[in-house]
Fold each of these.
Amino acid sequence: MASRSKITALLLLIFILILCLNAFAETKVKIKGDEIKYEKQGKIAILKGNAVVNFEETVITSEELILDQDKRIVFTDKPFKILTKKDGKDTEIIGKS
């Protein structure tokens, strides 16, 4: 059974990633990874090894990222970093799942 803190951290991660991808539908998204699998039917990209999702002025990095284009979300259960720039100010969020 997962601990309460792990569940809270996972929910926070999902919330942050949804906020970061708010403009996802209208924005060109660039992806990179050592290994990339794309499931056309579900429009899901699975990035493994040095995974990077880059859109607008936001960069999300992790060892593994899953990008769901239909739901407009990125998620992971690995440690991650989100770098974003707003109004000329850099913000860095580092998280663990």
Amino acid sequence: MRLDKYLKVSRLIKRRTLAKEVCDKARVEINDRPAKASSNVKVGDKLAIRFGQKIVTVQVEDIKENPRKEEAASLYTVLGEVPVPRDEKEEDAYLKGE
């Protein structure tokens, strides 16, 4: 499934167009690599999403085309949520798990 669609159906981001914009601004990584909106998402992938002043890391648990509202949260597991680092060195260290 495309990354922008996954972000929308999992309700991590409300609208697909917004999800595409976030991806185009290089604010999403899949398995520690910058991802485009058209990147494929698979079960087991680790996503790091930069939302304003925080970075949310989730693991993809399931992929469904049209999940119900109640099922959306079961599509991923939140691994962590941290404030945005002050500089790129700190961000790289966090994303590498250091």
Amino acid sequence: MPVKKPNVLDPNVVSKLPERLKDEYDAMYFYTSASNWCRGKGYEAAADFFKKEAENEHEHARKVEKYITDWNVTFTLPSIDEPDADYLSLVDVIEQA
């Protein structure tokens, strides 16, 4: 009986996935920062909105991670850029989103 080879993810795809993961985590950090800023300024509805967006981005990141690990690919988590937390106004936060 022939030996079945395991499925292998295309190396071109593998090389792009950490960048995609970084995008998701960067977005999560931005939305978390925006939520914290809004809450600190008393914009509770905006804070709740941005918190939910952060949760959505985190879920996206988890899906990318699962996809990568389901293919038995070992990877290093990318570094996350620190978001700018010096917003000028709520409009500034929204424009940066």
Amino acid sequence: MITFNIAKKPAAAQLQKESSAMNRSVSKQWRLAIVDDEADIRQLVRDVAVDLGFAVEEPSDPDVCTSAHCSRFDVVVLDLMMPGIDGIELMRRIAGDT
């Protein structure tokens, strides 16, 4: 017989309290770019990132995400399958490999 222990999820208020405490302890506000063609996914990632204290931007066009543009972000969240360009190619562009 296999048993699983499932930890109880912390209440939303507790998560918010912990993330607020974490934000106060960090002097720098991290910058995050969300590159995804689906608005629902961008909104979900944005909501979580903002709750965690990130400054969030959503470039309107993946083609603007070049090494020069995206180097100002600490974190870039990429969709792997977008029309016109995939996330792997975009990651190469950001890294300056092409």
